[in-house]
From TrEMBL:
<dbReference type="InterPro" id="IPR051120">
    <property type="entry name" value="ABC_AA/LPS_Transport"/>
</dbReference>
<protein>
    <submittedName>
        <fullName>ABC transporter ATP-binding protein</fullName>
    </submittedName>
</protein>
<dbReference type="InterPro" id="IPR032823">
    <property type="entry name" value="BCA_ABC_TP_C"/>
</dbReference>
<dbReference type="GO" id="GO:0005524">
    <property type="term" value="F:ATP binding"/>
</dbReference>
<feature type="domain" description="ABC transporter">
    <location>
        <begin position="7"/>
        <end position="254"/>
    </location>
</feature>
<dbReference type="InterPro" id="IPR027417">
    <property type="entry name" value="P-loop_NTPase"/>
</dbReference>
<keyword id="KW-0067">ATP-binding</keyword>
<keyword id="KW-0813">Transport</keyword>
<dbReference type="Pfam" id="PF12399">
    <property type="entry name" value="BCA_ABC_TP_C"/>
</dbReference>
<dbReference type="InterPro" id="IPR003439">
    <property type="entry name" value="ABC_transporter-like_ATP-bd"/>
</dbReference>
<keyword id="KW-0547">Nucleotide-binding</keyword>
<dbReference type="InterPro" id="IPR003593">
    <property type="entry name" value="AAA+_ATPase"/>
</dbReference>
<dbReference type="Pfam" id="PF00005">
    <property type="entry name" value="ABC_tran"/>
</dbReference>
């Protein structure tokens, strides 16, 4: 690949007491790529995400993003640097409308926040209008702009997932991390979400995602990183991973690990 990596994870390690949740993991993600992280339950995928997004500090190793080291920075600093994420459990603000939820993502990139917006200064008004327009733009992208003025809490689950992606994208990040985006979606909703991700990628967004749904992983990833017991055991294109014996053994090899 010609360009510089957008994300560079080097020897990343996290131990909890005696448990090595993530051990010496390396991988790169280039601009515009969709990279999946897969592995059996408890392999260390969420811990890896938490270290990249500043939720946890690594025990050792480094994370570079956009040519700067972000290891151990606070989550808001990492968001400012251009990484946003969605969580395994929905994190929709239930007491807001759909468009207000997305506007909260836009506010990360505008000068004023929700607190200062209480003063209704001209700049604030202008920015509110701008935030509204940007939020509507992202709701259109994910196909739920007709629901903009509904209470977020009444949206069906699949639409709440789309809302989260719109909110993440509205902060104009360079990279979006998705933690099990397909969980709980029916096949039609999954394929809608796949299209949204592919569309955003074609416009230059990069994605790193954890997912158990292999059809999605194989269908949209440029590359797949496989971890097992905290260690990277394989990395490659979907076709390479599909045939990798270590990967097959990790998923099917032991009784207590569910095949996914
Ligand atoms: N805060 C913590 N304290 C102690 N151990 C932890 C903590 N968080 C994770 N672990 C352990 O680290 C290992 C990796 O967990 P992690 O949640 O990262 O796995 P995962 O691959 O995301 O699993 P899943 O697919 O089930 O979400 C597990 O053995 C887990 O029990």
């Amino acid at each position: 690949m010609m360009s510089n990596p957008l994300l560079e994870v080097k020897s990343l390690t996290k131990s909890f007491g005696g448990v090595m949740a993530v051990c010496d993991v390396d991988f790169l993600l280039y601009p515009g790529e969709i990279v999946a992280v897969i592995g059996p339950n408890g392999a260390g995928k969420t811990t890896l995400f938490n270290m990249i997004t500043g939720v946890m500090s690594p025990s050792s190793g480094t994370v570079n993003f956009n040519k700067k080291e972000i290891t151990g920075k606070r989550p808001f600093q990492i968001a400012e640097a251009g990484i946003t994420r969605t969580f395994q459990n929905l994190q929709v603000f239930e007491n807001m409308t759909v468009v207000e939820n997305v506007m909260s993502g836009v506010h990360c990139r505008l000068k004023t926040g929700f607190l200062t917006s209480g003063f209704r200064l001209p700049l604030v008004k202008r920015e509110e209008k701008q935030a509204y327009e940007i939020a509507m733009h992202y709701l259109e992208k994910v196909g739920i702009s007709d629901l903009a003025h509904e209470d977020a809490k009444v949206l069906p689950y699949g639409n709440q997932r789309l809302l989260e992606i719109a909110r993440a994208a509205a902060s104009s990040p360079k990279l979006i991390l998705l933690d099990e985006p397909m969980a709980g979606l029916n096949p039609q909703e999954s394929s809608q979400l796949v299209q949204v991700i592919q569309q955003m990628r074609s416009e230059g967004m990069s994605f790193l995602f954890v997912e158990h749904d292999m059809e999605t992983v194989m269908g949209i990833s440029d590359r797949i990183v496989v971890i097992d017991y905290g260690k990277k055991i394989a990395e490659g294109t979907p076709a390479e991973i599909y045939e990798n014996e270590k990967v097959i053994a990790a998923y099917l090899g032991t009784d207590e690990e569910e095949a996914i």
